[in-house]
Amino acid sequence: MRGRTLGAAVALVVGAAITTIPAAPPTVASPPARTAAPAPPAVLAAPDIAVANVQAHLTQFQTIATSNGGHRRAGSAGHTASVAYVKGKLQAAGYTVTEQTCTSCVYRSNNLIAEWPAGPTDQVVMFGAHLDGVSAGPGINDNGSGSAVLLENALVLAAQRPATMTKRVRFAWWTDEEQGLNGSEFYVNSLSATQRGYLKGYYNFDMVGSTNGGYFINRITSTTAAPLKAYWDSLGIQPEENVEGQGRSDDYPFQQAGIPTSGYAAGASARKSSTQAAKWGGTAGSSYDPCYHRACDTTSNVSATHLDRSADGVAYAIWQLAVGSGTPGTCAGGQLVGNSSFETGTTPWTGTTGVITSSTSRPARTGSYKAWLGGNGGTSTETLSQTLTLPAGCASYPLTFHLRIDTAETTSTRVYDRLTVQIGGATLATYSNLNAGSSYVARTFDVAGYAGQTVTLTFTATEDASLQTSFVVDDVTLQAS
Ligand code: DTR
Ligand code: ZN
Ligand code: ZN
């Protein structure tokens, strides 16, 4: 979530309307007024990072700690499981992922490095956070917070698949930070002089959700820090230099190697001054993080506001530094619905088991599989869903599905059984036993209001106690172009 848009907005090109639904969150019936497209933006607007998604990663780290002796210390099962969790998400998103074994670490364990495979290989901006914790507790603020902020940013970058990347973006989740910045030092030492020369900046995120936190930026007046500072300045925060963290986190080995560094932090055991409490809120005289290196560093020990502002600032920096202006309105389009004709198993669809079927009792429109919702003749609810990421900048976003409805209801006036089609929680259309016919009918909706967002498409069939209605769906497509 963010307060307001910084920099240029994405030019919204409105395509030919088919059935128009309002922009999300769509609650009004009339389509929005359309104005001439604004001037081309210099830089594509950064996406808003959903803090709930960042928090969901923190919940996973907490669960991992709880089921592995209460911590995620380097070399422990909790750290290994944390690496596996982050790695799995990144691989699924399309990253080039490497585990690097740190042989000089106190606890032999792995760094995790992920690179988005676009942009010039010789110009890299790097974002890192340590994924290990101390053995005293689950390490959710220190440093699940930085780890989760980077993971969610990495996933959003991948989902958006920007058409142009002006820099390569590389993420790192360091090990053995708590024993002396060992994982990051090992990595820096493993680079050749040429590879180090490719690194245009390293950004560090260690403890970005402190509950009595401040807003600290490493090397705040440097040009490297400028995008991070610009974002917080835009929120009216008055950030300060990260004095407490100097030389104490993974930016230090990069700095020592002559690589420009910056980063965000919300603070550790040092105490908030009265001046800071006056401008940022919180408790003067108390530690920024009262649970620093303690058992109480759980999911309760994170400020959602700090987490959110860091997550959005990272996105702002990534977009400023590495996502090209490209051609305004550049569309990384294509057909977005996976397994659109239901012929290849169920993935990526979810919902009621058995809905996707090759039963010969109802015809498929193409192939032999379709999604048959309803048809039970008894009180029931069945669903079918898929989460879609709509790239920004396309001219049209037609969602089409083919629907065949047959019913045993005899009424011509009363709705007994219905199918609701929703996207992003808003209802696109509703059908019922009254819409029955003998063939498939194409239904098309303009879902341009969701450009640049990840939303779930859901079909829900509800039947009453008797007389079946079958809602059979096939060939669901969303062709962004
Ligand atoms: N690297 C931190 C130590 C730390 C101490 N003060 C700060 C301030 C801001 C960020 C980090 C730190 C640790 O992991 O314990
Ligand atoms: Zn830390
Ligand atoms: Zn620590």
From TrEMBL:
- Transmembrane stretches in the record are none
Going by the UniProt record, its keywords in alphabetical order are: Hydrolase, Metal-binding, Protease, Signal, Zinc
Domain Peptidase M28 as annotated: residue spans: 111-317
Pfam (any one): Peptidase_M28
UniProt cross-references to InterPro entries, sorted A to Z: M28_fam, M28_SGAP-like, Peptidase_M28
Q: Which residues form a coiled coil?
A: none
Q: Member of which family?
A: Belongs to the peptidase M28 family. M28A subfamily.
The organism's taxonomic lineage, starting at the top? Bacteria, Bacillati, Actinomycetota, Actinomycetes, Micromonosporales
In the UniProt record, the signal sequence range is 1-23
**Name recorded for this polypeptide:** M28 family metallopeptidase
Top-level taxon of the source organism: Bacteria
Determine if 4Fe-4S is one of this entry's keywords: no
